[in-house]
Design goal:
Blueprint lengths: L5 H21 L6 H20 L12 H21 L8 H16 L6 H8 L6
Length: about 130
């Protein structure tokens, strides 16, 4: 069941992307290099894909919303499994697991297309060269 509007998803992406980037210091696992860089990379990916997605809060608008949601799902799976894939689960795993599951759930519950108002507003604009 998809009940999250794309606009809300996008705003959440900006917040979650920043949270992922600062989480190693916020949740005190910055001394685990692989755990830190995976979470920072995930945050950068979330922010970049949000900037490039064609929806209400996207800035460049080149990635279709459905592709964005598929990327969210894939990133969530990798992030959730990363403590065991990269062998740092005995030091830290909860931020990666929770962040990954959150990303998976968000991808499965967000509308696949932006609102009708957004689509109507952008249907008559010439595409950028």
């Amino acid at each position: 069941m998809r009940f999250i509007p794309t606009r809300f998803h996008g705003i959440l992406d900006y917040v979650v992307g920043l949270l992922f980037i600062v989480s190693p210091w916020l949740f005190d696992f910055s001394d685990v290099a692989s755990a830190t860089w995976i979470m920072v990379a995930a945050g950068i990916i979330v922010l970049a894909q949000t900037v490039f997605t064609d929806f209400e809060v996207g800035l460049v608008r080149k990635i279709p919303m459905q592709s964005h949601l598929m990327l969210d799902f894939g990133l969530g799976v990798i992030l959730a499994l990363s403590p065991w894939l990269f062998n740092f689960d005995e030091m830290v795993y909860m931020p990666h697991l929770v962040g990954g599951i959150f990303s998976i759930l968000a991808s499965l519950t967000t509308h696949r297309v932006p609102s009708k108002a957004y689509n109507t507003q952008h249907a008559h604009q010439d595409p950028m060269p």
